């Protein structure tokens, strides 16, 4: 049988090729490689009834002159695998998850600590304060800055809600008004609401 003038379509471009039905499909695939740059091992040539295989029979496929074959495959070098392996969220620990999601961590309300929690969260957004708190030369007349630094450090290591007991205890030692008990009787002897 005489060679047929056929077309191949790859990546939106049409190439004209010669297909000799007397030669094995591997010869046609090599011609497709020469036209498209798609290596034979990454190439799929779509024919009537499926994909052209090396043992396919041209007589069963029945190519015709002017027929267009679709070619699927990537030309050129394949992308390199990532240098750092991909880790999925469900495989991460709390510290990795907190860093990956970069979501602000909530603080548990310990009974009338909502104003304190809001203030702590607002102060956490100030980069200069974060730098000052983590500086090795941090010096203070009170233990409050160190307690705040430790609270922020624990908030950075988790994606769960943090209970600020140590910070609240230090705050109440340094500023006794935050340790005042409600005398109205409405809260049953709980700590008084601050800021009202």
- Name the beta content range: 5-15%
Number of strands: 5
Main sheet makeup: 5 strands, mixed
Q: What order do the strands of the largest sheet run in, or round the barrel if closed?
A: 2-1-5-3-4
Give the termini separation.
97 Å
Low-pLDDT segments: none
Structural class: alpha+beta
Mean pLDDT, nearest integer? 86
Summarize the amount of helix as a percent range: 25-40%
Summed up, the helix count is 7
What is the rounded Rg?
Answer: 35 Å
Form type: rod-shaped
Order of helices and strands: EEHEEHEHHHHH
Q: Which helices and strands appear, and what pairs or packs with what?
A:
Layout: E1 4-10, E2 13-19, H1 25-36, E3 44-47, E4 50-51, H2 58-61, E5 68-72, H3 94-101, H4 114-124, H5 127-134, H6 144-156, H7 165-174
Parallel strand pairs: 1-5
Antiparallel strand pairs: 1-2, 3-4, 3-5
Keyword list:
34% helix, single chain, 196 residues, 5 strands, 5-stranded mixed sheet, alpha+beta
